[in-house]
Specification:
about 700 residues; OB fold (Dihydrolipoamide Acetyltransferase, E2P); 5-stranded antiparallel sheet; binds 2-(butylsulfanyl)adenosine
């Protein structure tokens, strides 16, 4: 489909008069707004990225031709504007407050005590009209660890975005805020029962980076030799305060709304409950916390707290605790504030994700692109409930910049990624015996030269046949986000490479069970299973295949964009730089990595061999078709698989759920919608029973998704 074929868009073409241009611009904006909403909020696009780009570029061109027709809510504003000399300051009409903290349940009870006292619910002087204890209920949601912001909407159009600043006065960062993909530039009333939009609305929330996006960004920065961000919070705050909003536009920011400031001219009844505010904001097109909870008392809040804390790793963004708010807005007003914090809300913080420990050694590992990555070996220490004994130091320059020496006392942190990182050295505690680390000039695995290419920070082993690189490439091939091969673990890959059985991914498809059975920990059954699992990947989707190739800078997201845009491996391999760079979401850096990869003879040979052994990457994914044809929609539903599956592998089950819009997590909580339990299911099944989560057999699950 091409833009000109879209039925409700009049034919484009040159030579609009101003009325024609205005009409066309309005139509394009409306169309693009809707596509943005489907893509960024609903995660359910109707058109391909390429088709989107055609619409977007046409709008850009028209706006360039007719600058008077530019508008603040045009989707083209998302790409950023030329740098501002400085930010203007902006006074908040209602101050943006901070939150008091609690660290224990006892401190939460003390807070509740203060709430009760303020509302005259304790002691003798209870008056007729005073609320009763039952009226004090709570709404709890994650505390986003990002940068607070206020967005101002006049008649539904975003007119300003202001940082929190000192709470009274912030900085006007409107141009930057417009680049954040899930910030509505215009409020929507598209969902059924959405409330009419008020004349004036201040929306408050947090600008954050999803952990996966943060990690990917840091990986890209590391590869490109740019300094790394310490954590998603710093990265978000820094990105928001860029004077050049085109830079902000390249950062993977998201906005989560959690409250309102001024609300003027709202038709109908004013808001009365905190959860109603959240639901209304969601109805107007804002992303809000994907998990929040109403609680009749603190015990229920506590359950939610522990549930969230237990599944902390499953939360897609950094949350450093809960924010607990009194649900009734009338009571909130009555409670008021003390100094700079409201009495009606409190942050119940999670245990710290930072800890202090000693660097016992620094080790070098070799990755699949040959990168030599230094890791600090630590005196084991507990961080947020997990014992940490290793932390990444990223690359040679990071060691130098932070001046980390063996024997140093360091602060480490788990943030934005599961791999802990060294934040900084506690120099005051440096002992005289601390040793500087000498970065190796040779690959510790194969002894070849390790060089740092001009303009890069990464030191790489030059030998493409370095066994460490081969192992990493094979391991990556079978990893969850790539081909998802059950059983292709590190230990097995190590043996396959050390014994010279396999030297590249194509070799995996030549394996027969007899090659595998003699290996350690390989029985006949597991050998057969692995061969079967590999055979099943022959029809993996194109995006998985691309991810598995391990092209630098091409992770799951870029791979999906490429697959969606081109639709076949051949077309991607043929694409020239210009075509690639024109794709929304693909920058020159990524384009150049793709071109380089496919221009290398050994990579082309590898692909030929893979195809010859029967791999045929599928596009579009079967599940997507099934989803459309059977009309099954699992969006918003969370599944946990436990026990043995008979019909499906775990990987297939997960892909099926995801392709139909659902999510799969590993632990059961009150947020879980279905537990699919097979034979041998144990504690997860029990937990589901305890929480009253629906439990299905595999066959019932298959029936549910129309299989
Ligand atoms: S409600 C303070 N809800 O925490 C007035 N704040 O430490 C009530 N924050 O600057 C704020 N997640 O930016 C609220 N779910 C959430 C939040 C949240 C993060 C931030 C907020 C504030 C800071 C206070």
């Amino acid at each position: 489909m091409n833009a000109a074929d879209t039925p409700d868009i009049p034919d484009s073409g040159d030579g609009f008069d101003s009325v024609g241009a205005e009409r066309r611009i309005t139509v394009l904006r409306e169309e693009i707004h809707q596509h943005n909403h489907r893509y960024y909020i609903l995660d359910d696009p109707l058109i391909s990225d390429a088709e989107y780009d055609i619409l977007f570029r046409e709008l850009q061109q028209l706006e360039e031709e007719w600058p008077d027709l530019r508008a603040p809510d045009s989707p083209t504003m998302r790409v950023g504007a030329p740098p501002a000399p400085e930010f203007e300051s902006h006074r908040h009409e209602f101050p943006m407050l901070s939150l008091a903290n609690a660290f224990t349940f006892e401190e939460m009870q003390e807070w509740q005590g203060r709430v009760y006292r303020q509302l005259n619910l304790v002691g003798e002087s209870v008056e007729e009209n005073d609320p009763s204890l039952e009226d004090v209920t709570y709404m709890a949601e994650p505390k986003f660890d990002g940068a607070a912001i206020e967005l101002i909407y006049e008649n539904g159009i975003l007119t300003a975005g202001v940082t929190r600043g000192d709470g009274e006065t912030g900085e006007n960062v409107t141009a930057n805020v417009r680049t954040i993909r899930n910030v509505p530039l215009r409020l929507s009333t598209a969902v059924p029962d959405a409330r009419a939009i008020p004349d004036l609305l201040d929306v408050r929330g947090e600008v954050i980076m999803l952990r996966s996006e943060f990690a990917a960004m840091n990986r890209r920065r590391s590869e490109a030799g740019e300094p790394l961000f310490a954590n998603p919070r710093n990265a978000s705050a820094g990105s928001l305060r860029q004077l050049d909003s085109r830079v902000t536009a390249t950062r993977p920011l998201s906005f989560f709304a959690y409250g309102v400031g001024r609300v003027e001219g709202l038709e109908g009844d004013p808001f009365t409950r905190q959860s109603e505010v959240l639901e209304t904001l969601a109805g107007w097109g804002f992303q809000v916390a994907d998990r929040w909870q109403l609680a009749a008392d603190l015990n229920e809040v506590e359950q939610f707290y522990h549930g969230l804390l237990g599944g902390r790793e499953d939360i897609p963004y950094e949350a450093d605790g809960l924010v607990v708010k009194v649900e009734s807005l009338d009571l909130q007003i009555e409670l008021g504030q003390v100094s700079r914090s409201p009495r009606w809300a409190i942050a119940w913080k999670f245990p710290a994700q930072q800890a202090t420990t000693v660097v016992k050694d620094i080790e070098i590992s070799v990755g699949r692109t040959g990168a030599l990555t230094p890791t600090a070996v630590l005196e084991p220490v507990e961080v947020g409930g997990v014992i940490v004994s290793r932390a990444t130091l990223h690359n040679r320059e990071e060691i130098q910049r932070k001046d980390v020496r063996i024997g140093d006392t360091v602060i480490i942190q788990r943030a934005g990624d599961v791999i802990p990182a060294v934040v900084k050295v506690v120099t005051g505690k440096r002992r005289s015996g601390a040793r500087k680390f000498v970065f190796p000039a040779l690959c510790p695995e194969c002894g070849s030269d390790a060089v740092q290419p001009e303009g890069e920070v990464v030191v790489r082993c030059v030998n493409l046949s370095c066994p460490a690189q081969i192992k990493e490439r094979l391991f990556h091939w079978g990893s969850r986000e790539a081909m998802d091969v059950d059983g292709l673990g590190e230990k097995l890959v190590e043996q396959l490479v050390d014994r010279g059985i396999v030297t590249d991914p194509a070799g995996l498809y030549e394996l027969i069970a007899d090659d595998l059975s003699p290996l350690d920990r390989m029985a006949e059954k597991s050998a057969n299973n692995l061969v079967d699992a590999l055979a099943q990947t022959k029809t993996a989707t194109l995006d998985r295949f691309l991810t598995a190739l391990g092209i630098r800078q091409v992770g799951t997201v870029v791979a999906r964009v490429l697959a969606r845009t081109f639709g076949s491996l051949e077309k991607i391999m043929e694409a020239d730089r210009e075509t690639l760079e024109e794709i929304h979401d693909i920058g020159p850096e990524v384009a150049s990595q793709v071109i380089t990869f496919f221009s290398m003879a050994e990579n082309r040979r590898l692909i030929d061999r893979l195809l010859a052994s029967g791999l045929s990457p599928q596009w579009p994914p079967e599940g997507e078709l099934a989803g459309v044809s059977t009309g099954v929609d699992l969006s918003g539903l969370i599944f946990v698989f436990t026990g043995e599956l008979v019909e499906l592998t775990r990987g297939e089950a997960k892909r099926l759920v995801e392709s139909l819009g659902g999510r799969v997590t590993s632990s059961v909580s009150s947020r879980t919608d279905y537990v699919i339990a097979g034979p041998g299911a144990g504690s997860k099944r029990a937990k589901a029973e305890e929480l009253g989560v629906e439990i299905l057999e595999e066959t019932a699950f298959l029936a549910m998704i129309g299989r």
